[in-house]
Amino acid sequence: MASNIGMMDSAYFVGRNELLSWINARLHLSLSRIEQAASGAVQCQMMDMTYPGMVPMHKVNFDARTEYDMIQNYKVLQDVFNKLKIDKHIEVNKLVKGRPLDNLEFLQWLKRYCDSVNGGIMNENYNPVDRRSKVCKERQFKTSQKNSKSLQTNNSQNSGTGDRQNIPKTTGTMQKPSAVAVESDCSDEIQDLCNEITELKLSVDLLEKERDYYFAKLRDIEILCQSPELEHIPMVVAVKKVLYAADESALAEAQEIASASYES
After folding, report:
1. How many angstroms separate the CA atoms of 147 and 96, rounded?
2. Which of 220, 20, 246 is nearest to 111 (CA)?
3. Residue 36, Cβ neighbours under 10 Å: how many?
């Protein structure tokens, strides 16, 4: 299985769009950015689909917004990994920050792992939407019960304090509607710019990783061509011509050397 895969494995060259398509198709979601999966709920449901009944979905919070709630989701996921003896440490502190690259790498690993189980074939009877709706209803019911008890307690405590509790207090100054509208427009523009910057950073990170991958391949070829028993072979000489060429003209010369070796 894919419990341990190296950073140069092909799994880590799966693109953002392919990952989002995989998640959206499997779980019937409509994610448009990798960081939208930072809460850990998506990962929990992917494991629930891969191993039905293994994930205590009633503990998964699909509405998690705070880091505290997200951490609880990852605790559920780590417990599942431990039960399945999956040797994968989850970098929770990095993932909950919503940084695209950290979440991208974890989702790349997750896809590779899920694809390695039963050939990536999921349970056809699994209904991700129905599964989520049941979980959300259970959480809402429990939350409403807690709120009801809290309200009853507060009412009983406030009943003996007189009518002073009912006197409205006004503090500060009210914002003018126009100021609120301008602030809202600025916030939207700032958010759009932040999203654009995030996308650009993600693209740069992927390009750098791809560059390092192919550079490592070229370096291996160079070392092989420099070995004493191979470096004088015409085909190796032709390859080195291309490797060390400063322009494209060396390709024709390398082809002539290779052709001459075949003719001889």
Report:
1. 27
2. 20
3. 15
Taking the C-alpha atoms of residue 214 and residue 126, their distance in angstroms, rounded to an integer, is 40
Cβ atoms of 97 and 85 closer than 8 Å? no
The two three-digit tokens of residue 39, written as one number: 């809460």
- 20 token code pair: 């989002």
Residue 251's H or E segment, with its range, is helix 250-263
**1 neighbors 115 (Cβ within 8 angstroms):** no
CB 44 within 8 A of CB 60: yes
Tokens of 116: 């390695």
**Residue 193 Cα distances to 78, 127, 198, 200, 248, angstroms:** 34, 36, 9, 11, 40
Q: Which of 74, 104, 101 is nearest to 89 (CA)?
A: 74
Q: Report DSSP letters for 75-110, one per residue.
A: HHHHHHHHHTT------HHHHTTT-HHHHHHHHHHH
- What are the pLDDT digits (tens) for 108-147? 999 999 999 988 787 788 999 999 988 766 555 454 455 4
Half-sphere CA count of 205, side-chain side, radius 13 A: 18
Is the pTM of the predicted complex or chain greater than 0.70? no
Instruction: Give residue-wise pLDDT tens across range 236-245.
Output: 888 887 877 7
**Contacts with 264 (C-beta within 8 Å, 6 or more apart), sequence order:** none
CA atoms of 44 and 80, how far apart (whole Å): 9
Tokens linked to 184: 């809202």
Distances (CA, A) of 133 to 57, 61, 139: 11, 11, 10
Q: Which two tokens stand for residue 43?
A: 């990962």
Q: How far apart are CA 39 and CA 17, in angstroms?
A: 19
